[in-house]
Amino acid sequence: MIIGKIVGNVVCTQKDPTLVGRKMLVVQPVDLKTLEASGSSFVALDGVGAGDTELVMVVGGSSARMADGMSQTPTDRSIIGIIDSIEILGETVFRKDQ
Amino acid sequence: MIIGKIVGNVVCTQKDPTLVGRKMLVVQPVDLKTLEASGSSFVALDGVGAGDTELVMVVGGSSARMADGMSQTPTDRSIIGIIDSIEILGETVFRKDQ
Amino acid sequence: MIIGKIVGNVVCTQKDPTLVGRKMLVVQPVDLKTLEASGSSFVALDGVGAGDTELVMVVGGSSARMADGMSQTPTDRSIIGIIDSIEILGETVFRKDQ
Amino acid sequence: MIIGKIVGNVVCTQKDPTLVGRKMLVVQPVDLKTLEASGSSFVALDGVGAGDTELVMVVGGSSARMADGMSQTPTDRSIIGIIDSIEILGETVFRKDQ
Amino acid sequence: MIIGKIVGNVVCTQKDPTLVGRKMLVVQPVDLKTLEASGSSFVALDGVGAGDTELVMVVGGSSARMADGMSQTPTDRSIIGIIDSIEILGETVFRKDQ
To answer: Which site in B9, C82, D70, E10 is 20 to 30 Å from D23, CA atoms measured?
Structure first.
């Protein structure tokens, strides 16, 4: 899984029927040590009620369909967690609400 | 999922039987913030009736077969939405028909 | 899917039993606009009777097993079409037999 | 599979229900010859009781769900072994507890 | 599929139960034209009895589990053939035992 920051959203009227009612969020992946942007943004489906600027965990590939309620959805990236904290080499590099 | 622009199409007479009658479109991925071309073009099957120069959402991997009507099709990239708008950091960076 | 040119083949005597009798072709991916070599060559199984120097469409990942007759085969790249023509931005950049 | 070093962990309260009780470890991939950091860190689920700074084997994609007890979990990276030793070209480049 | 050279092996005592008794080989991918090392080494499960320094064909992703006897194994890279010869543009660039 990778960690990214929610930076936006995408709206489609004409879309696959299974996507109706789904939040399609734009995620900017971040480096896990520095939390700086790293790599290209992508669109992910939200499975946990994530909001703007939150740091989230994203699962890719066929496992994106294992996220709660997405088994019949054409998703290759799903948000499966909102990050509370990240610890690297014994140091807390991120803690929510700080 | 990634966002790309439809820039062309591919025609094959000799092909897998499940591809008969399928539109095979050439998609140029774009950067989600600048909408400039980013990365290599690829061929995707169209599941939503997308047309030339439209901005679309593309799903990859096994989930490409979850697009409507493609479960028995050898596709690793399917178009599952036509983009109406993209909002990044509170700004609308794309709106269709503008 | 990506487009590539068939540039060779690979022979194995000792191999997975499901590969017996399968043509294993070397494919050089090409840029879809310039048709020049782009990226590393790989081995693909042939599902459509493709021949040397032909331009072909290749599907990857689990969908490679959706190619006709390959559902039980350990393939992650299968050739599913022989390209007749490619049109980019209204121009024909490739037409077979020219 | 790739080899990496466990360098940290991630905590989420709000997450996919199947992730409750799962250790989510941060893995830094390493070059198999030099054992130096190589490529971006990611989050993996632990299936073998791995601990901080240990060298582990990580499986990706849908096969991450084949790890013991993870068939219903949205994971695209799972730890499936703790490395005892690595031999390259007849030389032992890593041995645990040395 | 990609072609690589077997350059070593990995030993784990603590591992997923399905890996017990499996040979875990280190493979260095090679360029198909020059046969020089190209890209990062990885660990693959052996399905064909491959040995040190042999050139092998490796399948990735979920199809790695289609290799003979691996359907329940958490593998994302399996060796499915030992290369006898490679022909590129009409020239034999590799022949075993030469």
So the answer is: E10
Token pair listed for B81: 């939405």
Cα distance between residue B73 and residue B4, in whole Å:
21
Give, for E59, the enclosing helix (H) or strand (E): strand E55-60
HSE (side-chain half, CA atoms, 13 Å) at C31: 7
Q: For D17-77, give the DSSP string.
A: GGGTT--EEEEEEB-TTT--B-S--EEEEESS---TT-EEEEEEGGGGGGSTT-TTS--SE
pLDDT tens digits, B28-41? 999 999 999 999 99
Q: Where are the domains of chain A?
A: 2-95
CB contact under 8 Å between D11 and A68, yes or no, is no
* Mean pLDDT, rounded, for E73-80: 98
Chains that touch E (3 or more CB pairs under 8 A): C, D
Q: What ipTM goes with this model?
A: 0.96
Structure tokens at E20: 């017990």
Both tokens of D37, joined, read 């950091």
Q: Does D79 touch chain E (CB under 8 A)?
A: no
Q: Which CATH architecture group holds B2-89?
A: Beta Barrel (2.40)
